Amino acid sequence: DGGITQSPKYLFRKEGQNVTLSCEQNLNHDAMYWYRQDPGQGLRLIYYSQIVNDFQKGDIAEGYSVSREKKESFPLTVTSAQKNPTAFYLCASSISAIANTEAFFGQGTRLTVV
Amino acid sequence: KNQVEQSPQSLIILEGKNCTLQCNYTVSPFSNLRWYKQDTGRGPVSLTIMTFSENTKSNGRYTATLDADTKQSSLHITASQLSDSASYICVVSGSTNAGKSTFGDGTTLTVKP
């Protein structure tokens, strides 16, 4: 099946720890994105990547880091510098970022700081 | 600043009834507008995508309209079902800001039996 897979579905982190959220796609899409969703709010862009080995900061990149070493993978690390990391994280991909084409979303990872 | 405003914030209707959700935007220059359905705790799923030249697009019981002159869109749901209960998100992309779309806060629809 073609699609975009996020793991884990639920993640608990102790304060001061870094955690990495996984995002894999087999749609052969060039562009990949990470969003954060808080209750009652719209999705906010953390980072996006238009092509392998390249990525740009979104609107709320502070406290997060990403890598894009492979076309199909775009992991997100939530670092200890992120002061309020509890949220629902969504990964998405699209054929091209430049064309602003339709984005396909994963099922999300809910991160909770304990 | 690019903005997308959705209304109402929440809506409750009875099963079988129709409803219309609104989306107003200030994104310019405009590239496309998308409507997504997001079930609780799941990722959004695309319903429709419309470009500047498209006025209406349907996907089953969902019909989206676009007025690019007034920068307004609507999503009409016909003969609602319990499974339509979800958040509906309007997303607008500009043609000059690659990778950065503007998301509305969503309308939460509850369909009751």
How far apart the termini of chain A lie comes to 35 Å
Helix content of chain B: under 10%
Strand content of chain A: over 45%
Distance between the termini of chain B: 41 Å
Largest interface: A-B, 28 and 24 residues
Structural class of chain A: mainly beta
Stretches of chain A where pLDDT is under 50 for at least 5 consecutive residues are: none
Architecture overview:
The complex is a heterodimer of chains A (114) and B (113). Chain A has 114 residues and is mainly beta. Chain A starts with a strand and ends with a strand. The relative contact order of chain A is 0.32. Chain B has 113 residues and is mainly β. Helix content of chain B is 0%, strand content 58%. Chain B is built from no helices and eleven strands. In chain B, strands 2, 4, 5, 9, 10 and 11 form a six-stranded mixed beta sheet that branches. A five-stranded antiparallel beta sheet of chain B has the order 1-3-8-7-6, with no helix packed on it. The model of chain B has no long low-confidence stretch (mean pLDDT 93). Classes of the chains: A mainly beta (114), B mainly beta (113).
In short:
The complex is a heterodimer of chains A (114) and B (113). With 114 residues, chain A is mostly beta strands. Chain A has strands spanning 4-7, 10-13, 19-25, 31-37, 44-51, 54-57, 64-66, 76-78, 87-94, 104-105, 109-113.
Throw out a few tags for this protein.
heterodimer, A: 114 residues, mainly beta, seven-stranded mixed beta sheet, four-stranded antiparallel beta sheet, globular, B: 113 residues, six-stranded mixed beta sheet, 11 strands, 58% strand
